[in-house]
Amino acid sequence: MIRKFALAIATSLALAGSSFAQDAPPVKIGFSLAKTGLFATATPAQLNAYQFWRDQVNEKGGLDVGGVKRKIEFVEYDDQSNPTNAVKIYEKLITDDKVDFLLSPWGTPTHLAVVPVLERFNFPMIGSTASSVHIRELKVKNVWFVSPSVHDKLADQLVAMAKQNNVQTAAVIGNVLPQAKEIKRFLIPALGAAGIKVAVNEEYPPDIKDLTALLSRVKEAKPDAIFVLSYPADSVLYMRQAKEIGIEAKLQWLAIGPGLPFFRKMLGNSANGIVTMGHWSPDQARWPLAKPFYDAYVKRFNEDPDYLDTILAYMSCEILEQAVAKSGTDKNKLREVIATGTFDTIDGPVKFDGVENATTPVGFLQIQDGKFQIVWPASIATAPFRPKTGW
After folding, report:
1. What angle do CA 248, 254, 257 make, to 5 degrees?
2. Average pLDDT of the residues in 56-78
3. 3-state helix, strand, coil in the chain (%, to 5)
4. pLDDT of residue 5
5. Between the chain's N and C termini, which has fewer beta carbons within 10 Å?
6. % of the chain at pLDDT higher than 90
């Protein structure tokens, strides 16, 4: 009788707990993305990651918020590729919509814009598709960057890769948006310190429609490497016009754009040999979560993820999920958990040092035979670098 009574009590408690979890209100998570405007071609990769994560979590019963499962409900807006709009939106998310948590917008300019809002309201947010030396120098307390490619470290690794591949002369071209400007700030002196001559050093507006004159100067200079500090639209423009003009640099690095699925589809074999920012591969056996994520993503969307932005966005969600399981909705606890914890992600373990990802190495991907391979650094490489030999 005692055993039956104990079993009945346990069953009642379990049912009560299950009912409580089902009756818990949804957890509201807010963000803005550039669904229209200059950056709109880049943001679907980030939105896919957010939606994929939300659906996976909800299928498991909801987000564990301090021990209570709650279904995720997004509160999302279009910032129209305007950082000023994002500032207003994130303030609205916090004050009017009263979201429980935030996900990040797209890109460095918009992250830079919303950081003061996070600091003013003391509201933690894990950044994804951005990195910034400037934010690190400000020693802010409410944002962390999943990307390891903070621009001074990125520049150093670019130069190290160039030196290893016998680059003696380089061209540096890029648009005038904040990320490109900050990369250039560190890349030019790093090239000089390494003894690599900068034969061309030019900037262009972000909405440029013709690079012919600039690329003609690059071709005339015959550099061993060209570093294109680009966003998706100008990455595609570079590819088309570099092929027309016949740029022959053996190392051609484009900042943002090649990781997007449409890039390889649009450009076909011309994309082979292009190197870009990125540090993830489903074929890296050291990261046990990588291949299952890849397989599930392809099954859901019938295409590869963006090897940069989708990965970073999904990693930020993984970290938030693990953190709120410990902190609940308490923002002070959440800040402490993120700042001090170590998190399992599809790109391996992540721990932060200040605002920076201190564990993931700065990496570079190369398109080889239509697929991405990590070619830098050697510690995580899935294939050696191949010089680009034609279009």
Report:
1. 130
2. 98
3. 45, 20, 35
4. 40
5. N
6. 89
